Amino acid sequence: MKCFILGIEYIYRINMSAPRIYRIFISHAWESNPDYERFVGVLNNAPLFTWQNCSAPDEVAFTTGTQKSLEKQLQDQIKPAQIVVLISCMKPDYRYWIQKEVDVAQEMKKPIIGVLPSGNERTLSLVQNVSNNVVGWDEQSIVGSIKKHSM
Question: pTM (2 decimals)?
Fold first, then answer.
């Protein structure tokens, strides 16, 4: 691309090869979760895919405080994300927080991708009902859906 400043021609290149960095909030129960770790591994191993994890890692997870302060921390994590990923499971203990994550994502108009549970677990209907897309554990499906639906 050419640019003229005070009559002097400057030629500069726009770096078209710079990768887009996808900012992703991944729903999880703030404890050791094999599906969460597996999902992070899928994203980390995907070729030509750069991403930033907006979720609280286990070592800095928030587990204390009032419900309002926990909800505020959840909002602070989802706010910079371009997309929210819900890993579907049928654990009723987490339903309240999954609903909170959905509520925050919808209030902030964030797209939501649902990931089907691994194994023989049933999918939480909430995840199917609110997701822009539901994918399995195939790397191409996951990455393709993130690229398609990210803000």
Answer: 0.81
